[in-house]
Design a protein that fits this description.
Blueprint: E1 4-7, H1 20-27, H2 49-65, H3 73-81, E2 85-90, H4 97-106, E3 113-116, H5 123-128, E4 133-136, H6 139-149, E5 153-156, E6 169-172, H7 175-188
Length: 190
C-alpha cells in the first residue's frame, strides 16, 4: 500500500554538521559537530540572538546551496520513490523554494512535493498532506508530530537531540537503520 512520507531536509537529508564550518569561519570558532549539544546554535557565538538570526538570514542561501547529502539517503529515497510519495516539509523560508528544488535536482534526489513552511512547526503541514510517517532531526518537532499526528517519527540521532523520546519516536543513526525500521513497519501495515 502506497504511503506518504513526510521528510525534513536539513539535518536529515543534508548532513547535520553542514553549518559548523561556516560558523567556525565567520565567528573564529573551532567547534566540532560533537560540540553542538543544542539545536539553538546561537549559544555558541558571542553575539545576540538577533544578530545571529541576521547572520543566518544573510548566509542561509549559500549554506543550503552547498549542503552535502547525508550518507545513504539517495539510495534509500530512490528505492522508495516508486512505491511511496515523498513529501519534503522544511522550516526553510518560502523564498528558498527554487534554490531548494535546484539543489534536489543537482543532488539527483527524488521528490514528489517540497513544502517550505518558514517555521519549525510542521504539524499543520503533516496533517494537510496526511503523511503516514515523518523523518526528522529536531527533538521537539519529532515528539510533537508523533503526539499530535499519531504517526511514527524517525528521529536521526545527533548530539543536539538526545532528550528522552516517547513511544512512537524511533531513534536511528543513519538511513540504513531508518530503511530497516520502515521496511518492517510497511510489512506490518500493508
Amino acid at each position: 500500500m502506497r504511503k506518504k512520507f513526510g521528510i525534513d531536509i536539513d539535518g536529515t537529508v543534508t548532513s547535520p554538521d553542514t553549518i559548523v564550518p561556516y560558523m567556525n569561519q565567520d565567528f573564529g570558532l573551532s567547534l566540532s559537530y560533537s560540540d553542538i549539544k543544542e539545536y539553538d546554535l546561537s549559544v555558541h557565538v558571542d553575539i545576540s540572538k538577533s544578530d545571529f538570526a541576521k547572520w543566518w538570514l544573510d548566509n542561509e542561501a549559500r549554506i543550503y546551496e552547498a549542503s552535502p547529502l547525508t550518507k545513504e539517503v539517495r539510495a534509500v529515497l530512490r528505492e522508495w520513490e516508486s512505491a511511496h510519495d515523498l513529501f519534503f516539509i522544511s522550516a526553510r523560508s518560502k523564498h528558498l523554494l527554487e534554490l531548494t528544488k535546484e539543489w534536489f535536482v543537482k543532488q539527483d534526489l527524488p521528490f514528489h512535493h517540497i513544502e517550505l513552511i518558514g517555521s519549525h512547526d510542521k504539524i499543520n503541514a503533516a496533517k494537510q498532506y496526511e503523511v503516514d510517517i515523518f523523518f526528522e532531526d529536531k527533538h521537539d518537532n519529532a515528539v510533537a508530530i508523533c503526539e499530535q499526528c499519531k504517526i511514527p517519527v524517525i528521529l536521526f540521532n545527533t548530539p543536539y537531540n538526545q532528550e528522552p523520546v516517547p513511544e512512537g519516536v524511533i531513534r536511528v543513526n543513519n538511513w540504513s537503520e531508518a530503511k530497516a525500521w520502515v521496511d518492517t513497519w510497511l510489512k506490518e501495515n500493508a
